[in-house]
Amino acid sequence: MSLSKTEAVKLFNLGFKRPDYADSVYPQDIYDYQNSTWVVGGRILPSGNFLCEEEIYKEGTWIPSLLDLISWLEENDTKFNLSYSGMGYKVIVTDNQEYEYSSKGATPEFAFYNVITKILQRYGGNPVNKNYEVIEAEFINKKDL
User: In this structure, are residues 112 and 66 in contact, taking their beta carbons and an 8 Å threshold?
Assistant: First the structure.
């Protein structure tokens, strides 16, 4: 079960976002648009042509997936442990300042949603992302792929 538009908007208002280096839309993204749920869809490689109309991902509300929530935790340099008790999920997260958060949810998405909300509230928005330094880049020709 994925998050709803209500939870997504709360995350965004607290500062949740994709990393700056990431594309703004992916074929697997889910959007709420005019009270309907859409998956962007389309070909992933060699070109990213989307199947849905552009207004869906431009005007709709992006609903972060479980992978998006996990990626956010990874990008914000946390360590986490997800467990299942038979009644629900529990996640324990330690941030890069060694502060620990815990949360429970009926699904992994809601356990991660609840703990990310706590982290965003503590930092008053998005914590500092990992710093990347590109030391060397090499152009790869299409024929080499």
Answer: yes
Q: Tell me the sheet residues that pair with 89.
A: 84, 105
Give the integer Cα–Cα distance in Å for 74 and 130: 9
Q: What is the pTM of this model?
A: 0.81
Q: Are 88 and 106 in contact (CB under 8 A)?
A: yes
Cα angle value 8/13/16 (rounded, 5°): 65
- List the alpha helices (DSSP H) in the chain: 5-14, 54-59, 66-75, 108-123
- The 10s digit of each residue's pLDDT in 127-138 is 766 666 667 766
Cβ neighbours of 21 (radius 10 Å): 8
Task: Please report, as a single letter, which amino acid is at residue 30.
Answer: I
3-state SS assignment for residue 63: strand
80-98: per-residue pLDDT in tens?
Answer: 999 999 999 999 999 988 9
Q: Give CA 51 to chain center in angstroms.
A: 21
Residues in the chain: 145
Provide the pairing of β-strand 36-39 with 30-33. antiparallel
Q: How far is CA 21 from the centre of its chain?
A: 13
